[in-house]
Sequence to fold (224 residues):
Amino acid sequence: MKGNLIILTSPSGGGKGTLILHLMSMNIGIGYSVSYTTRKMREGEINGRDYFFVTDEDFKTRIANNEFLEYATVHGNYYGTSKALVDSHIAEGKDVILEIDVQGAKIVLKKMPQAVSIFIMPPSFEALSYRLTTRATETSEQLSLRLNNSFDEVREYEDFEYVVINDEIDSATKRLESIILAERQKRVRQMDAIKDILNSFNASKQRITGENKIGNGQKRRSKY
Ligand code: 5GP
Fold:
């Protein structure tokens, strides 16, 4: 069975990074799609784990080679999702999670409307501002750009199927997990497994009752 594509988006500082870390530690079979970016590496970040940190030139070559499922300029830097990485997780049968901005999320949803889309809503502007300020990873200019962008970004929740209010990390992680687990139980997402089960019933029915159902619902007696 193929995995689901899960799009997680929020304004910058919405706390989706921390939520994903908690979610990944639950080991529920989710792959994370590491994005490409041209932004500078922050202290503590690791190339290939947090992002693939590349130059502008490298990023543009990848755009020209059509390597991205989506890409966008976010707060002045390029960010993009690798098609190959996403495909490899999904082919392995794992759900794959994309942690991307609202513009990128909308591009992916247009291309892949079957994706599960989740908007992480900060509980208030103050909470978002506090998160961005205390993590101290941005210059004051970058910080005000991100805060300013959040006014528009937070209104974009309407385009997403689920909204998780990130008020308390453990509870928000549980709600996120429950969405992902419930999505796996959807009938349409389990058709391959269901067909195999029905085949086993059909085979046994013929053996045990001598009956086998034909296309229009009529029953036919087997001669054996
Ligand atoms: P940060 O610089 O704080 O790591 O990320 C800034 C914003 O870029 C966040 O909202 C993050 O979700 C978004 N982002 C990260 N990777 C991608 C990506 O591959 N595509 C898009 N469109 N946005 C991304």
